[in-house]
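quick one, 233 residues, struct below
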Amino acid sequence: MLRSKCLLAAAACLCMAAVAFSQGPLRPVNRRGPLGEIQPGLLSVLAEPAARADLKLSEDQERQIGEILSHRPAHIKVQGLNADERRKLIETTSREWSKVAAQDKAAAKAILNDAQRARVDQIIIQIWGIQAVGLPEVAELLGLTDEQRTMLREIDRSGPTAPSPVNLRGMTGEQRQKSIADWVAARNEVEAKMLGVFSDEQKTKFAEIRGEPFAFPTTQPGSNISELLKGSL
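---
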């Protein structure tokens, strides 16, 4: 099985909110997070205490990373604005966030050593799950053929529609857990079919690219990845 039940339970809402194949080329759908970068990315991973522990950051690295993460953009206030004003404000703010995120990402990468940067890449791929095959660099490393890309896209499109964050917020805790669990079970079947498109060599390569399993934290307050998984960013 591509991911353990624990990982699937944790990653369900992330896949729901952040990863789905587009109607065109085989690639994940990007969304900008609270740190200004495209999710999931280097900054969102470094904002997670469990990930920093996994990376075994030094005290000095922790301090420098903490300073970078403090650059979290302020919330956009759109109350009282008309549709055109909101659109312009969001576009302007998005460009500013993107610029800051690019600078912060470059600074954070410079703080990490080669092994830590490689591990962050592995964690990001594990967050994407098998949807990581939509990332150009992963697809290239796996040597996916055009036929395989088409098959993966068609299988993915046949999968279940993820419950929306808005609907989940309106449910009781028990209802929310059942809704996510049902989606995870159905999604797991789809991902198993997608994995079946790989050759044995590609399966081995994909496992190599993902690296050692990262112990994803459960959804709880204080966890950045947990917030990301809830689709609330």
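DSSP finds twelve helices and two strands in the chain.
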